[in-house]
Write a structure and sequence with these properties.
Radius of gyration: 31 Å
Number of strands: 0
Strand content: under 5%
Distance between the termini: 97 Å
Largest sheet: none
């Protein structure tokens, strides 16, 4: 079987990016493109455009539970830091 030759893509203005994705998904994607005789770049660009043109709704995160107030310090207990300045004149 003769190997298919593909026209060279114009790379003027192209940028590269590299992200790690699930290995099984990457293998499926490569095989999908190979079975169709199409380029990985072509399908990746098509998938990204389709996803950005028709984005899924932004996930709404549930509100955080309230944080309980800290317990008051026991009287006579040492506090950290400087002692409070006395009120009034010096």
């Amino acid at each position: 079987m003769a190997k298919r030759t593909r026209p060279r893509q114009n790379v003027a203005g192209a940028k590269q990016f590299n992200y790690e994705i699930d290995g099984a998904l990457a293998d499926r994607f490569r095989q999908f493109c190979r079975d169709r005789g199409e380029t990985i770049v072509g399908h990746l660009e098509m998938a990204l455009r389709r996803h950005m043109d028709n984005p899924p709704p932004v996930p709404v995160l549930p509100p955080l539970p309230p944080v309980p107030a800290p317990a008051p310090a026991a009287s006579g207990a040492k506090t950290r830091g400087r002692p409070p300045k006395p009120k009034g004149g010096s």
